[in-house]
Design a protein that fits this description.
Length: 200
């Protein structure tokens, strides 16, 4: 029984991480940004959704906003630190212990926020809160969980975004065309090609 639960959990986790890796790869290819950039962007959106869950109670919304913004700030700083360590480790062909520790922390936080979103949003429904409030909170916690899953993906170095790369390629094409040698005109004479005799 326990083995089946573990196997199911692994399948679910592999599915989530497959989506996360594909998302980071697409983000890196289009924008040139790294996984920390994507994760931190998600962490910027999450507090907006989480605090909006209390939109009917402005004081509570303000308190929730401050708490979740601080939570996001701490996570964002940790994400930048982790990515820097991963980058250095990759350059040196080594593994970074602190990065591995934060990866394990992200596993806990990712599923923790996902569970929190499901559990607390259900409590809000049972306590007769507006259904929109529970939806906001669930969305915010899901986005926050997604940021932690993103930080578990493989590190991809930053690069130019797709527009800049396209512009560079067009510029290279134009420059290579300009560098092509000009064709010099050839003087043609009237020639009898059957006899080889030049006609005057």
């Amino acid at each position: 029984m326990i083995e089946k639960i573990v196997d199911t959990a692994k399948v679910v986790d592999n599915g989530i991480m497959f989506i996360a890796n594909k998302s980071v790869s697409a983000y890196n290819w289009t924008t040139g940004g790294t996984k920390a950039n994507l994760a931190n962007g998600l962490l910027t959106v999450a507090p907006i959704m989480e605090s909006s869950a209390s939109y009917e109670k402005p004081a509570l919304a303000l308190i929730n906003g401050v708490i979740w913004i601080f939570n996001s700030h701490v996570s964002q700083e940790r994400n930048l630190f982790t990515e820097e360590r991963e980058s250095r480790a990759m350059e040196g062909g080594m593994l970074d212990y602190s990065a591995l520790v934060y990866t394990n922390i992200n596993i806990i936080l990712g599923y923790g926020h996902l569970a929190s979103g499901i559990f607390i949003s259900q409590i809000l429904v049972n306590e007769n809160w507006n259904s929109l409030s529970s939806s906001f909170f669930f969305a915010g916690q899901t986005i926050r969980a997604a940021s932690h899953f993103v930080m578990r993906t493989d590190y991809l170095p930053p690069k130019k975004n797709i527009l800049s790369r396209t512009k560079d390629k067009l510029t290279d094409l134009v420059e290579s065309y300009r560098k092509q040698p000009e064709l010099s005109p050839i003087l043609l004479t009237d020639r009898n090609y059957l006899s080889g005799e030049i006609l005057t």
